[in-house]
Amino acid sequence: MTGKVYLVGSGPGGLGLMAMRAQEVLEAADVILFDQLPGEEVLSSLPTTAEKIDVGKYGSRHTLEQNEIEDLMVKYAKEGKRVVRLKGGDSFLFGRGGEEMETMREHGIPVEVVPGITSAIAVPECVGIPVTHRKWASQVTMLTGHEDPTKEESALNWRWLAKSPGTLVILMGVKNLPQITAALMDGGMDAAKPVAIIERGMRVDQRVTLGTLTDIAEKATAVGVRPPAIIVIGEVVTLYRDGSEGAMHITE
Ligand code: SAH
To answer: Is the CB of 229 under 6 A from ligand 1?
Structure first.
């Protein structure tokens, strides 16, 4: 009697941007494994009937390692339980959902994936920044800034990224921002390229910092930018509008 695992993305913040299917599987869950990225509104409304486990994999403060989380998912599923692994945004975009799916496959555990609205697109768009635009960006590249570009064995080709047209959307890039902007300028990207950093997108304490490739790292340090934040690099950033014009979608 094997249970089932649901890999659920809760969206960028707030219940309103979560799929109805996600709500359904949460209501029927026996166990919910979550971290803090879904945000207060989603986490405070989790059903009381399910066993809830905070795996607390937030920034660099890991309370549970990835393999320990997967072991728990396997354990509960093998007990016949409906297990929801709940994550912010979409669980397959820099969310390790793909690895979790593979592990469940190895154990013969059925998996249902419930897609979420990814912060990589939704957070910029809710401050008026479209990641593509007919005039300015026919390409969008989403990448993790988790790796220091000066590291020899980087999985990313920064020279190629510096030359690529369109928009760059960087997740997990706050810590390495000085190295990232330096690597892009070294690779030949225009130093005047507009950059926006959106911290805690779609939360009440959202904050946007604007600059160019040359000065954004300095500005970020000056104002104390902290994760979670989305960094957008490209001409589309000039379409940014602040919330005073009524375009914002803040849900908490
Ligand atoms: N799977 C998630 C991303 C997980 S990686 C998704 O699809 O959205 C974690 C990174 O996502 C953070 O470091 C940050 O770069 C970004 N992020 C997620 N939610 C965010 C939010 N509400 N505001 C700003 N950045 C966010």
So the answer is: yes
